[in-house]
Amino acid sequence: MTRARLLVGLTAATCAGVLAACGTLPPRPDPVPTSLDAVQRRDEAPSSAGALSPDGFDAAQRMAVRIRNVGCGSLSTGSGFAIDDHTLVTNRHVVADSAALEISTYDGRDVRAQTASTAALADLAFVRTVDPLPAYGGLAPLDPVPGASVTVVGYPRGSRLTMTTGSVIGATTDPLHENLGEVLVTDAQVDLGSSGSPVLDAEGRVVGVVYAKGQDGASFVVPVSTLRAMLDDETQVSAAPTCGD
């Protein structure tokens, strides 16, 4: 397995020295575009849960959010998705070392973050929001098997909402040692900023969370079984570290 790299879309390097004394932040990314790019690896259309809303987006698209991590002298972007009216799932490295989290929905609406917590044994994080989220999805009961078709929904490079399709290649020991267990490997295309994107099965259920990309183009996914384990055990999560910690 080739070495993988994390998929937070970095727009500025963290400055050296005392973080609280850092200088002016770089410009923020452009507002979230309100149209959709569909990048399909096969002839079939990506599946998702729920019917189309009046604006033409379905539930799988509406559940995904863009997350901007404003740190002390740094700015990065990632993706996330809702699992209930006020809870988002993303990656630990997407929310770590932040001074503020800025969340945008598929239609460009800003959602205020309330609290963020991170898992101890996986690259997962949970963000509670003040404002209600537009849509949320369900979790699949089991991890997908090799060969299963999947769809990834997210905001690569902090830009346009994008759906890519692919299939599960198999499982491997986490190459970044962020999960302390097996992770899934898919050939669905992801890019910088795709960290935290939901991986959906043919019924639109979440089967995993994108967290890294290999140099060979494969993407690495925290399986839904690990996500369920973290959600079921509150002792496995704690407050996310901020840039002042």
From TrEMBL:
Q: Which domain of life is it from?
A: Bacteria
Return one Gene Ontology term, BP aspect.
proteolysis
Signal peptide coordinates: 1-20
In terms of Gene3D superfamilies, this protein maps to: Trypsin-like serine proteases
UniProt keywords (A-Z) are:
Signal
Q: Which InterPro entries does the UniProt record give?
A: Peptidase_S1_PA, Peptidase_S1_PA_chymotrypsin, Peptidase_S1C
Pfam families for the chain: Trypsin_2
PROSITE patterns named in the record: PROKAR_LIPOPROTEIN (PS51257)
Annotated region (Disordered), positions in chain: 26-53
List, in alphabetical order, the Gene Ontology terms for molecular function in this entry: serine-type endopeptidase activity
Q: What is this protein called?
A: Serine protease
Which organism is this entry from? Cellulomonas persica
